[in-house]
Amino acid sequence: MSRICVIFDLDGTLVDSEGLCNQAFLDLLPQLNETVASVTQRYRGKKLAQILADLERRLCRKLPDAFEQQYRQRVAELFSYELKPMPGVFEMLDIMNFPKCIASSGPPLKIRQALQVSGLAPYFGNNLFSSYEVSSWKPEPGLFQYAAKAMGFVPSQCVVIEDSEVGIEAAAAAGMRAFQYVRNGETSSWRAGEAVLFDDMLQLPQLLTHTQLIDPKDAG
Q: How far apart are CA 65 and CA 78, in angstroms?
C-alpha cells in the first residue's frame, strides 16, 4: 500500500470549536440577533477577514479597529473552559498509524491553545501548519501543499480530513483525496466522488486503510 500522510483540519473536525467561535461574534455583536447555528452555517471554514467584511456589510457600519483583538480574546476565553474534542477523536487517533499533521486557517496561538485545552497536543507535536504562516487560506491549495512538503510527502500521497466545503475545495485544488466529516443532522452539498463522507470518527482509520492512492513511483 502507498504511504499516506493524513492532513487534519482542526476547527469543527478535531475539536468542537465552530459554535464557540461564532458565539464570540454574537457576544460582541448582539445586534445580529441570530442563532449560533445560523452564524456557524454562514461562516464555516471562512477566512476571518472575509467574515469581518461580511459583518460590516450586514450591520451597515465599520467595526471598531480593536474588534479583531476583542474577538480573539473572547474566543480564547470560551476555549479555555468549554472547548472539547469531537466525539471519538481520542480513540481514532489512538489506533491511527499514519503520519499526520494539522493544517488550519487559524493563527498558530489559537491552534496550540485548542490542542492543549482539548488534550490533543501530544498526538501532533510540532506538525502544525497555519494559514497565517504561509499566507494562503482555504479554498486556496497553498496551505495543504505546504503541509505535505513539510511532512515529506507529495500531494498524491495525502488525504485531507475536513468539515467545511472550502476545505474540501482546497484539498481538490491541491490534488489530494478528501474526507468530509459530517456531524449527525448536518448535510453536505458535495456530490459523490468529490469527497468521502463519514459521520463517525471511529470509521476513519478503516476508511484510510482501504484508500488507494497513487504512489509517485507508479505514476506515468
A: 22
C-alpha pair distances (Å), 144 with each of 135, 154, 155, 158, 180: 12, 10, 8, 9, 15
Residue 124: all three cell numbers together: 501532533
Q: How many other β-carbons are positioned within 10 Å of the β-carbon of residue 89?
A: 23
pLDDT of 194 > 90? The answer is no
Please check whether residues 65 and 92 belong to one and the same domain.
no
Same domain, 69 and 161: no
Per DSSP, helices labelled H in 44-200 are 48-59, 67-82, 89-95, 108-118, 121-124, 131-134, 142-151, 165-174
Separation between Cα atoms, residue 181 and residue 188, nearest integer Å: 9
Total-model pTM:
0.88
User: Which domain CATH number covers 197?
Assistant: 3.40.50.1000
Dihedral, CA of residue 191, residue 196, residue 198 and residue 202, to nearest 10: 180
Q: How many CB atoms lie within 10 A of CB 7?
A: 28
